[in-house]
Amino acid sequence: FLQYVYIQRVQEIDSFLTQLRSHYFRASNYWPRLREIWDDSKTHCRYFGKDLETRDKNLSEIFSKFPETRSSFMTKTELQKLKDLPKTVIVYRGGQQSNIAGWSWTLDKSAAERFGSANASDKRPLLATVAGLSAGAILALIENQDCDELIIDPLMITLETAEFADIIFERIVT
User: Fold this and answer.
1) Cα dihedral sign for 146, 150, 153, 154?
2) Are the beta carbons of 167 and 161 closer than 8 angstroms?
3) CA gap 94, 129 in Å, rounded
4) Cα four-point dihedral sign 47, 121, 97, 144
5) Could you tell me which of 23, 25, 59, 167 has the fewest CB atoms within 10 Å of its CB?
6) What angle do CA 66, 22, 54 make, to 5 degrees?
């Protein structure tokens, strides 16, 4: 059954990418459709590309489309939370060395540590902490049960870190 769900998600996202590239979408229907897919694909790193490079290319293309209406990707509450963030924030990401540069971040350090500990297949969980990140680098904020998810292009973290922020990597002790 899980294999079927995986195949279905990959096909759904491949179809979305094909529609994106064929200019199928209008700004009014693009972001709501992406939100449906995003919510159905919580482990999106597996679905948006067979490897990290493909994932990052696809997600970069997806999130750069219709930037003027990106706010419709979020609920009103999520958009307000994003607007209410201070100018600079501290964000966290749990993972392992091979995927620590990713799209999903959080303001909740303990949630990032839990995620890293639970999902590090190499059994060496890692926590990335970025201090002084411009809130303008956050593409979207999504409310989740455990913690709010911040969608940030990993290239922004790299670029922002070089000039405006500090980044620290540390092992999570389990």
Assistant:
1) negative
2) yes
3) 9
4) positive
5) 23
6) 75
For the chain, the residue count is: 174
Structure tokens at 129: 């902490």
For 119-165, write each residue's pLDDT tens digit: 888 888 999 999 989 999 999 999 988 899 999 988 888 755 555 56
CA-CA distance, 170 to 159, in Å (whole number)? Answer: 20
Instruction: Specify the residue for token string 């209406």.
Output: 69
DSSP annotation of 169 reads: E
Q: Where are the alpha helices (DSSP H) in the chain?
A: 2-21, 27-40, 52-64, 76-83, 109-119, 154-163
| Closest of 87, 89, 9 to residue 46, by C-alpha | 9
Question: What digits encode the pLDDT tens for the residues 11-64?
Answer: 888 889 999 999 999 988 999 999 988 887 765 555 676 678 888 888 899 999
Band (pLDDT 50/70/90 cuts) for residue 85 is very high
Angle, helices 52-64/154-163, rounded to nearest 10 degrees:
90
> What span, in angstroms and rounded, lies between the C-alpha atoms of 89 and 9?
33
User: Could you tell me which of 139, 154, 171 has the C-alpha nearest to residue 69?
Assistant: 139
Distance CA 77, CA 43 (A): 23
Place of tokens 């009014």: 28
